[in-house]
């Protein structure tokens, strides 16, 4: 499936993706897959000892992974050129994360048809967990 | 506080052989059902050579190689005071199973900032440029570490 440059305009919204609610087990699975074994994400006793009174927090990179899922469910993986996020807030088991995005710029540069989109991941309260943006180079209908 | 004399310093390369099973495992851990990450035939039908690496896959060689703790120690950053502030990827080519990646970590910048509450922080940017076995640039990862002081 392709998405064509001509079909996208500034203000266009990326299809929304809802993930969760998060379970501690997913932290363990993600730790094993990614190699991030910081016990802050998997061991409640450790997390409490370093000041997280409610226990473990979710890997920020897992939330970035959710945003990556939302992006490449819409824009083909091969068209993604840049993807950046800022980690704005902590996510915990039980949170449900909703990812949305919007096209903020569209231009042709060096023979590439580029779009820039802003993306954000929020929990069920609307608290921002991750905000960022991506660029994609889309094919033209010619 | 972070050692500013180390800006520009490069560290021992991260080496990583990309496996199809690891790509699928990583996609499953995220809960991403996109068949291009899970099934070679589905990926080929969509125009890929094989199952491509998902957008955040380069965290795998970085974390499994344990390169970052060495960099943080060398920069004299206090582990307990570090937050991962930002992560950025630039993508130049697809990464496929069988690729052998080499990533060179480099200290891109260290800047001191003051938060709204008056707290001083060091903003440390580490870049890792990844090439494949053909010596082609495939991606750059940029991590912003925030050391609270």
From N to C, what is the helix and strand string of chain A? EHHHEEEE
**Sheet with most strands: strand arrangement of chain A:** 1-3-4-5-2
Q: What percentage of the residues of chain B does DSSP assign to strands (E)?
A: 35-45%
Mean pLDDT of chain A: 96
CATH homologous group name of chain A? Hotdog Thioesterase
Task: Indicate the low-confidence ranges of chain B by residue numbers.
Answer: none
List the secondary-structure elements of chain B in sequence, H or E.
Answer: EHHHHHEEEE
User: Uncertain runs of chain A with pLDDT below 50, 5 residues or more?
Assistant: none
Please state the second-level CATH architecture of chain A: Roll
**CATH domain class of chain A:** Alpha Beta
Instruction: State the largest interface.
Output: A-B, 33 and 34 residues
Contiguous helical run count of chain B: 5
Radius of gyration of chain B: 17 Å
Number of domains of chain A: 1
CATH architecture grouping of the largest domain in chain B: Roll
Major sheet summary line of chain A: 5 strands, antiparallel
Within CATH, the superfamily of the largest domain in chain B carries the name: Hotdog Thioesterase
Largest sheet composition of chain B: 5 strands, antiparallel
Overall geometric form of chain A: elongated
What oligomeric state do the depicted chains represent? heterodimer
What does this structure look like?
The complex is a heterodimer of chains A (142) and B (149). Chain A has 142 residues and is an alpha+beta fold. Helices cover 21% and strands 35% of the residues of chain A. Chain A has a single domain, classed as Hotdog Thioesterase (Thiol Ester Dehydrase, Chain A), CATH 3.10.129.10. Chain A has helices at residues 24-34, 44-49, 60-72, and strands at residues 13-19, 80-87, 97-109, 112-122, 128-137. Chain A has a five-stranded antiparallel β-sheet with strand order 1-3-4-5-2, with helices on one face. The model of chain A has no long low-confidence stretch (mean pLDDT 96). Chain B has 149 residues and is of the alpha+beta class. Chain B has a five-stranded antiparallel β-sheet with strand order 1-3-4-5-2, with no helix packed on it. Chain B starts with 13 loop residues before the first strand and ends with a strand. The A-B interface holds A 1, 19, 26, 29-30, 32-36, 50, 60-62, 64-66, 68-69, 71-73, 76-78, 80-87 and B 22, 25-26, 28-32, 34, 36, 46-48, 52, 54-56, 59-60, 62-64, 80, 83-91, 94, 142.
